[in-house]
Amino acid sequence: MHVSLATNAGRADRPNEDFVGVVPGAVVLLDGAGIPGAEPLCFHGVAWYTHRLGGALLRHLSCGDGRALAAILAAAIGEIAAEHGDTCDITDPSSPQATVAVVRAHQGRLDWLLLADSYLVLDQVEAGPQVVTDERETTARRECSAPLVGVAQGTPEYDRVLASCVTAIRARRNRPGGYWIAKDDPRAADEAVTGSRFLADLNGVALLSNGASRIVSPYGRTDWPGLLDLLRASGPADVISQVRQAEAQAVDRADAAVPDDATVAYWTRLPR
User: How much is the pTM?
Assistant: First the structure.
């Protein structure tokens, strides 16, 4: 088992809210999410939540008992909810939450679980990469943001419509027909995207947070096969470096995005 890792905060004045960790036979990557100004809801913060949840996942995975990944995630969510449920308003839609990506080698197969918009890229032996993600959050955000199309930014009307869009997306969180994310309710784990492949069919696997996946979209620095080439040649740190370069060059363009925490894990020498 060989895993190379890299992570980088999107802003120097804020903690990195991503998490990545490894135990023998498994890799975990989380992308923390929260709403600015929500500190009164949970004084621990998003970084605390992702680190605690990531640690709990690694602890369960290290047992090697073969439990379903959804069951492991549900247990971890429940544990962290119990840790701060008495001191924080964890049921509020704006309280800390995280996307989850987990891969595990077990009985000759690679099992995976994805909750919300992180990415898994399977390096297949006899085909191009297989890209797995949970598109429900992206779909919900696109649908809820539709009323903003054609509204001039910087106007009172834009601010009003934006506020209604934010309310709409929060209402879809961890609800049927919306999208699912790790937060306070262990039942969200049952809604995760899961799958499995024979280890013999794979050369390796890459996990990327949403911030790191920007190298493919929206910035188009490479495609998914090119991403794997880049990982083989120069590793996860170079992927993140190219994302930062693209962000800097796109400041005045329509595809500009606020720099986000970016994390990549690349697992090769899979067990057979």
Answer: 0.93
The tens-digit pLDDT sequence of the chain (272 residues) is 999 999 999 999 889 999 999 999 999 999 998 766 667 889 999 999 999 999 999 999 999 999 999 999 999 999 999 999 999 999 988 899 999 999 999 999 999 999 999 999 999 999 999 999 999 988 998 899 999 999 998 899 999 999 999 889 888 989 998 999 999 999 999 999 999 999 999 999 999 999 999 999 999 999 999 999 999 999 999 999 999 999 988 766 655 668 899 999 999 999 97
Q: What is the 3-state secondary structure (H, E, C) of the chain?
A: CEEEEEEECCCCCCCCCEEEEEECCEEEEEEEECCCCCCCCCCCCHHHHHHHHHHHHHHHHCCCCCCCHHHHHHHHHHHHHHHHCCCCCCCCCCCCEEEEEEEEEECCEEEEEEECCCEEEEEECCCCCEEEECCHHHHHHHHHHHHHCCCCCCCHHHHHHHHHHHHHHHHHECCCCCECCECCCHHHHHHCEEEEEEHHHEEEEEEECHHHHCCCCCCCCCCHHHHHHHHHHHCHHHHHHHHHHHHHHCCCCCCCCCCCCEEEEEEECCCC
One-letter amino acid at 120 equals L
69 touches 120 (CB < 8 A) = no
Tell me which residue of 35, 43, 9, 140 sits closest to 97, measured CA to CA: 35
Measured CA distances, 160 to 56, 139, 149, 163, 199 (Å): 40, 22, 13, 5, 51
